[in-house]
């Protein structure tokens, strides 16, 4: 799995910039002070750097728009100031490697090393009028910087794992984050993707529908399946997206694959489907690691599993068949992962599978099925954790009232989940089942991506307030209804286990090595400057 913390950590490192106007004010202040203390015009260096990076970004398809140009120039200024404080020299050529690497990976032009090399080489010389130099040392350091930066870029470009090249994946991610262009990433994924057949299921009534896909809504943001949940929820404002037992290996590879799923979803909505009959009262079975809520119709069983606490992120799809075999062909079945646990996860273990199958064996459906009454309500709400689908509540009533509370988010804070479940006393529900869609559209966004719903007190309080109000609204809309069930198969291309494993390896295992290499390549000339100055 690609963990919340991993993406959030690297997105903060790569893409979270402080406010540019604050940085600019600090940069101007520092440069004025040090210009006064030295013979170097640090203010001129800072301003010209900003203009240089902004101009090349504006006209040569780099991602250093003005705010980023300010922050990047400030970083270079701080390195220069530290260098001057250390040895009395300010030789801007010592940052050439840092400039080269940054330009290369922020360019929209693939294989644009040559252009970035020229621009990085020109940069130090436009600053010569603002500083005193020993030209021989200056040129030596620039050459060392260009060589070390080029070697690092070539290393990342040439290194290859079993399937993927880390340099190409890094550039693809940067293109998405910096330019909102998912095409390079999709190109990489599609090149190594595999075609599989999956199943889509829809339980629909006049009040609302529950949709389930055997595919996984990831990996992040606009990349392939990262759009899946948004596309479904936008297509039908009265649908709940039910996360299935599935993992990241089944991430749809491209926007085209997501569109194929959406097309089948729309066709299911038009299909008459099979009448699932009356509904019995829900059955709740608590195991060691998981709890299952069984909602039984005469011709369909909905099984909703949630972790009791700390545990795995996603539940593997192979368990679907094992659970179906237990129930045989008596009824249709929808197996749902509530995906409402913390962002901190454990790896999948054999004892988790054993616990789930023990729970399945203990499910005992009793009592008479009654005609169903249903109500639905959706409240638009977005936050740093909640995505565009907002908060949706579906209420089912046989003799008891059950509320399915779906939050369009990736995971849920444990305390919030408990508080939502406890709202049953205030709202008159017999059972409240909190769920999330596992929407990845906010994973790794800026400095705040990857938060579970209710990650802060303010977020939790707002969600709780909205859920309570939405439950009350859905209850007012209760009416007698008939549920009909349809399912269809679809073939699409998915990321696959090997590609996902290597992307996860790049982000978790390899990233520290690449970052260390970046620092080494960038600061070899800075260290050398201290030796020769």
Q: How would you portray this structure in words?
A:
The protein has 533 residues and is an alpha+beta fold. 48% of the residues lie in helices and 16% in strands. It has a five-stranded mixed β-sheet with strand order 3-2-1-14-4, covered by helices on one side. A five-stranded mixed β-sheet has the order 12-11-10-9-13. Strand 2 (209-213), helix 10 (228-235) and strand 3 (239-242) form a beta-alpha-beta unit. The longest helix is centred in the C-terminal third of the chain and has 36 residues, at 497-532. The protein is elongated, with a radius of gyration of 28 Å.
Strand and helix map with partners:
Elements: H1 4-15, H2 20-37, H3 42-60, H4 66-87, H5 96-105, H6 113-126, H7 135-158, H8 166-179, H9 183-192, E1 194-204, E2 209-213, H10 228-235, E3 239-242, H11 255-270, E4 274-275, E5 283-286, E6 290-296, E7 300-307, H12 318-327, E8 332-337, H13 350-362, E9 373-379, E10 391-397, E11 401-407, H14 414-421, H15 424-427, E12 431-436, H16 457-476, E13 479-480, E14 484-494, H17 497-532
Parallel strand pairs: 2-3, 7-8, 11-12
Antiparallel strand pairs: 1-2, 1-14, 4-14, 5-6, 6-7, 9-10, 9-13, 10-11
Helix pairs in contact: 2-3, 2-4, 3-4, 5-6, 5-7, 5-17, 6-7, 7-17, 8-9, 10-11, 12-13
Name the poorly predicted regions.
Answer: none
Per the principal axes of the C-alpha atoms, what is the gross shape? elongated
Strand order of the largest sheet: 3-2-1-14-4
What percent of residues adopt helix (DSSP H or I)?
40-55%
Distance between the termini: 49 Å
Query: Count of DSSP helices?
Result: 17
Query: What is the typical, i.e. mean, pLDDT?
Result: 87
Tell me what portion of residues adopts beta-strand conformation.
15-25%
Number of strands: 14
Q: Please tell me how large the radius of gyration is.
A: 28 Å
Largest sheet: 5 strands, mixed
SS-based structural class?
alpha+beta
